[in-house]
Design brief:
alpha+beta; NE0471 N-terminal domain-like; three-stranded antiparallel beta sheet
Length: 101
């Protein structure tokens, strides 16, 4: 399980992140793309208040905004071929019952 040790805010809504396995690098947060509660992070004061949760080892911000460390680690390390990108949003949609077929 990936655990974040440190996270430092950078310009352009990016974080410099270091994981317990030695992986270290820049992670783009992209609040505009994520939308919803992540839009709070467009405020520099909120974004710069990032902390690492000591219990879950995830990054979090005031107001209940957080990111999964495993997803961040996969994105930074490169997802294995054949798996969906960890940043992609998927929606389960039931199959349509077409009439007349």
């Amino acid at each position: 399980m990936a655990r974040i040790l440190t996270a430092r805010p950078l310009a352009a809504h990016r974080l410099h992140v270091r994981f317990n396995d030695g992986l270290e690098g820049i992670f783009p947060i992209e609040p505009e793309r994520r939308g919803g509660v992540f839009l709070k992070l467009l405020d520099a004061r909120v974004f710069n208040a990032v902390t690492v949760n000591p219990d879950f080892a995830c990054v979090e911000w005031p107001g209940g905004v957080d990111l999964c460390p495993d997803t961040m680690h996969q994105a930074m390390a490169g997802a294995p071929a054949g798996l969906p990108a960890p940043m992609a949003l998927h929606e389960d949609v039931p199959p349509r019952a077409d009439k007349g077929n």
